[in-house]
Write a structure and sequence with these properties.
Elements: E1 7-9, E2 17-19, E3 22-26, E4 36-37, E5 50-53, E6 58-59, E7 62-63, E8 70-72, H1 74-81, E9 91-94, E10 103-105, E11 113-114, E12 118-121, H2 130-138, H3 140-149, E13 151-152, E14 156-157, H4 160-164, E15 167-171, H5 174-217, E16 222-223, E17 228-229, E18 234-236, E19 244-246, E20 250-253, E21 258-262, E22 276-279, H6 281-285, E23 290-292, E24 301-302, H7 306-309, E25 314-315, E26 320-323, E27 325-326, E28 335-338, E29 344-346, E30 350-355, H8 361-369, H9 371-380, E31 382-383, E32 387-388, H10 391-395, E33 398-401, H11 404-447
Parallel strand pairs: 5-11, 22-29, 23-28
Antiparallel strand pairs: 1-2, 3-15, 4-12, 5-8, 6-7, 9-10, 9-12, 13-14, 16-17, 18-19, 20-33, 21-30, 22-24, 25-29, 26-28, 26-30, 27-32, 31-32
Helix pairs in contact: 2-5, 2-11, 5-11, 8-11
Length: 462
Amino acid sequence: MKGYDSYKESGIDGIGSIPKGWHRTKLKNLVCQRITDGPHETPEWTDNGVPFISAEAIRINVIDLAYKRGYISEEQHAIYSKKSKVQKGDILFCKSGSTTGKSAYVDIEEEFGIWSPLAIIRASKEKADGRFLFSFIQSSVFKYQVETNWTFGTQPNIGMGALENLWIAFPESMQEQTQIAKYLDYKTQQIDDLIAKKEQLIKLLEEERTALINELVTGKKVWDGKGFSKPTKTKDSGIDWLGEIPEDWEVKKLKRVFKFSTGLSITRENLSNSGVPCINYGEIHSKYGFEVNPEKDYLKCVNEGYLESSTKSLLKKGDFVFADTSEDIEGCGNFSHVTGEAQIFAGYHTVIAQPLVQINARFFAYIFTSQPFRNQVRSSVKGIKVFSVTQSILKNTTVWMPTLENQRRISETIKLKEGRIKSAVDKMVSEIDLLKEYKKSLISEVVTGKVDVRNEVIPEEN
């Protein structure tokens, strides 16, 4: 796409040149009322009434009231509205917290209130097209100004005075502003639709992976000499939720297959960059869920003195280590299994499971990933803000075991198919990242006049 015929320096950091007929001004000069934020106090919550939102309700540039904090009364909303009342066509801007700089265009009629992390920007209809102003606020050049003007406490924050004094570049013609806004609405919607399709495909692939694991590790399909098919001979497992299993499979309590112990009684202060690698519950929940290889994976270390004093917490290849706490129910049962030969300790907030009998460790890793196993753990844990996964809970879960050879065959089949799924997912994630970068670049190029879209034809439905 071509640019404009001639340019001039904008004098704005991060923007560079703008078309010769464009202007620059501060944000406060393009709004019809002073930029205001929501109340700083905690409201009195009610069971119903007016939805009350904060930063998390901004979802991909729009407001989603499903993410409201709660409800407030009509009376309290009326009081708060004297300072900050949202209208359709407003721009909501996150001015504090981890999402500082995010924004959304209000395109809904429903009444709602906002909390203090959000500010209302209302474009002056005589000076700025609201959608154009929103597009500029979304651009990386505006976000650059936000980042160079925010302050840090525990999280970033940009004050109202700093926000209203940020620079906007714009064409004087309202018709041109509207054309730019319509063009960007059309093009970014195309990009968002592509991203949504790829995200849906990723979701379907993840569901395919989960179904594959659940199907093979519970014996719903078995090896028939050529491939996997429904078993011809089955027996009652004796467990309602498991149902029929292949005739040659066994059902056991986990304590009959593994011996259990605890990780090191240490804190973060005991960790350093040298010594013996140590996996703690944090790494299990984040980096190294499912498997860890101390020969390849980066882990903090403990002093080598623990090799003499705490051998019971030392792991070897094929051992499992579970996180003994989780902040959400989905994380209950998270684990890692050791795939390398090097020494590694289980650290704080961990439960160790070491095989008592010969097993295929990867097969059991897939069992511990499966929904039937996770459901057992989740139904047994207790907690409100933090859930505790005890040795007793793990010991008394039920597992099902084919022969060692079938364990190997199942784990190798899942690993192969899982690898193909992962490759497809990784490819789509990369494509999504490229689309997001293209979208960011497109918005910034168009709202600063680096490309000329005045004569671009936009389909009528947009």
